[in-house]
Amino acid sequence: MKYENVKDFLKQQINSGAIKPGGKLPSIRELSEQWECSKNTVIRAIDELEKEHLIYSVPKSGYYVIVRSSQSEDRSEGRIDFAAAAPDTGVIPYEEIQHGLNRAIQLYGDRLFTYGDPLGFPSLREAISRHLVASQIFAGPERICVVSGAQQALHLLASMPFPNGKSAILVEQPCYAGMLNLLSLLGVTAIGISRTESGVDLDELERHFRNNSIKFFYTVPRYHNPMGTSLSRREKEAIAAMAEKYDVYIVEDDYLADLETDSKSDPIYSYDHSGHVIYIRSFSKIMLPGLRLGVAVLPEAFITLFRKYKSSSDLSTAALSQAALEIHLDSGLFQRHAAMMKDRYSIRMKALQEACSTYLNEGFRLSQSTGGIFAQLELPSHLPAEELAAALRQKDVYVFPTMHCYLPSVESANSLRLSIIRTNEQEIADGIRIIRQTADELTSPRKINKFNRSAITWI
């Protein structure tokens, strides 16, 4: 068909470098004249290339080739990275971001180079308020605080006193390693509650809420880090109800909400009727990792104190980053890129499930994650995760042992967190095959362990 000829031609131009990464495609009119076909035929060809994530659109500008980095300093040739948690630099739409930054300078001028409101640009908070509605988060801009990444919100909340006058923080086990590091550095009392693939034991959670002085319960209900699984609606409703009953706050880290594939999956916040849920959202995992932007939706009772702690931390979040995000949200660029990444990551997660089913025997078990970027691989008991990780590192395959996701007082699972955020389908298949091969080498009766067991710093 004619559109396939146009598509193949453009694809050849991209792959050969005739149209360079970041370069602009000929206009629809130019291609229509060149191929003597209708504009609809060209549009269909371009739509196909967008679905293959080879190009992206910039409204009122045209179509551009996605920048792909094969030998950047953070993605070496031949390296298979299952440990990364930041987006692949090769799929970040630099032209779009540059367009947004340039537009931000034009629109905001001097506002970008002065101190602003610690809670963020009023106009950005309004844009975020509108954006959150799609996730069943209904909050006016006066309750929204823009933060320098979700990590800053967690740090401020762990540091400041809460209205309930309580002091301990309850965390899931396993838990996001960055949160555990933060609590350790602050010297905060942390208590663990088991989180499994089937969720949280609600009876145990209620005992903690009733018997311990819990300031807040930190949870990642959607696409958990490191397991990749999500809580059910029943669990979310029960957690919100218990928070009200026992005057315990919930800090809901919804860092991957923009990648949700189930339109009926709502956050705990949507079931909160008493103002006990603090909702945190990140924009870094989708499109803008280096701009360090997140948002906290606060109960009214927190706003004044949070503002004081926020201003003592950084006075205000970087103005240029805020302006760029506002432009991306209002123009729909952020939403379109999020939709593209959602499709991309869904394909990769399916590839991970299939590769593990193909190459790993019954001694291994991968968590059944249906989306997001993480899954947890349980290992046979005779194969220590740290030893396997060290051996894989020598083969340029990087994984993240989940022992770093547990409190020191809690026995950790013998497992690895696998991330698909910086891999493609072929790398996933090759990486899982290498994991199996290396595991066989380590557990061979004739094997002599010569691997370097020097200390490794995990991020």
Automatic annotation (TrEMBL):
Q: Which CDD domains match?
A: AAT_like, WHTH_GntR
What's the domain of life for this entry? Bacteria
Q: Using the record's annotation, list all stretches that form the HTH gntR-type domain.
A: 1-68
Among the GO molecular function terms of this UniProt record, one is:
transaminase activity
Keyword terms of this UniProt record: Aminotransferase, DNA-binding, Pyridoxal phosphate, Transcription, Transcription regulation, Transferase
**Is Cell inner membrane one of the keywords?**
no
Q: Which cofactor does it need?
A: pyridoxal 5'-phosphate
Q: What SUPFAM superfamilies does the annotation carry?
A: PLP-dependent transferases, Winged helix' DNA-binding domain
Q: Which InterPro entries match?
A: Aminotransferase_I/II_large, HTH_trans_reg/aminotransferase, PyrdxlP-dep_Trfase, PyrdxlP-dep_Trfase_major, Tscrpt_reg_HTH_GntR, WH-like_DNA-bd_sf, WH_DNA-bd_sf
> Does the record carry Transcription regulation as a key word?
yes
- Give the family from UniProt: In the C-terminal section; belongs to the class-I pyridoxal-phosphate-dependent aminotransferase family.
Task: Enumerate the PANTHER family for this protein.
Answer: HTH-TYPE TRANSCRIPTIONAL REGULATORY PROTEIN GABR, TRANSCRIPTIONAL REGULATORY PROTEIN
Kindly provide the name given to this protein in its UniProt entry: PLP-dependent aminotransferase family protein
Native organism: Cohnella soli
